[in-house]
Amino acid sequence: MRALRVAAAVEAVSLLFLLVNVFTVHVDVITSLGGPTHGTAYLVIIVIAWRTPPALAPGARPRALVPGIGGLLVLRRMPREASAAQRPRLVEEE
Hints:
This protein is an all-alpha fold. It has four helices and no strands. The radius of gyration is 17 Å and the shape is elongated.
């Protein structure tokens, strides 16, 4: 889960830098460093989402494929489902 959080943050921040760069000064160094960083974070998010059991996060896999914000969408979906699945069940005593 921690790796997913880091990858989602890197994906979002690198996309922000790339968009600001494109619409302002368009420095080639930012593009050549930010592009592969963003792409790697995107692929890491897809791999983590597809390796997560579907029972823990139903619907997270297709959300990972959304470029730019897929990691944030997966994070938003996973804690709710994962925490419910990991919660201990209370057994009523008779």
